[in-house]
Automatic annotation (TrEMBL):
GO cellular component: cytosol
Start and end residues of each HTH crp-type domain: 114-183
Keyword hit for Transit peptide: no
Protein name per UniProt: Crp/Fnr family transcriptional regulator
């Protein structure tokens, strides 16, 4: 087990994939830096999630950096060779890894399709709904973190969060958001995109 503090980098984008990480406690953000130096957050992982799978077989390196969001954040670690040996010799392990990869691909495809061309209000509803399902309706992220998840500015997120709060869908606190009406929030997230 390895322990990290909030803000501490677990692994860097592009560095060699040396193994799998299992989140035991806390939350981890996966962040990507683009060619122009802009960065986005592709996901928030919580206890029970496995990170670092992407470059395990092809040695392409970690596609993003992993940053601890909580103090403490505790992670289990499995060496690349051990993970590959288990994958080849234990069918249940191989099936679990395959299911994780399939689930992540599905989530990415759904996220891209559902957010494409939609106003920030709907994009934020989608993201909060997905995170709320994972964290029992209590999302502990800063406005800056949410902005990086969606690809917008912090000020825009603050304004849209206030709008969702006026709609009685969420309650905004410092560093956390409580989803007050998950069903209505999900209904908003699933609304067809407005026509231009």
């Amino acid at each position: 087990m390895r322990r990290f503090s909030a803000g501490e980098i677990i692994f860097h984008q592009g560095s060699e994939t040396t193994g799998l990480w299992i989140v035991l406690q806390g939350r981890v953000a996966i962040e990507h830096v683009g060619a122009q130096g802009n960065w986005t957050t592709s996901g928030i992982w919580v206890a029970g999630d496995v990170i670092g799978i992407a470059g395990l077989w092809d040695r392409s390196g970690y596609p993003g950096s992993a940053r601890a969001l909580d103090t403490p954040t505790e992670l289990g670690w499995m060496d690349r060779q051990e993970a590959l040996a288990l994958h080849q010799s234990v069918p249940a392990f191989a099936m679990t890894i395959s299911q994780l990869l399939a689930e992540r691909l599905r989530v990415v495809q759904e996220s891209i399709a559902s957010r494409q061309g939609r106003p920030i209000l709907f994009q934020l509803a989608i993201v909060l709904s997905m995170l709320g399902r994972k964290t029992a309706s209590h999302v502990r992220l800063t406005h800056e973190d949410l902005a990086h998840l969606i690809g917008t500015r912090r000020e825009t997120i603050s304004r849209v969060l206030q709008e969702l709060q006026r709609m009685a869908l969420i309650e905004v606190g410092y560093g956390d958001i409580v989803i007050k009406d998950p069903d209505r929030l999900e209904a908003l997230a699933l609304e067809p995109p407005p026509r231009s």
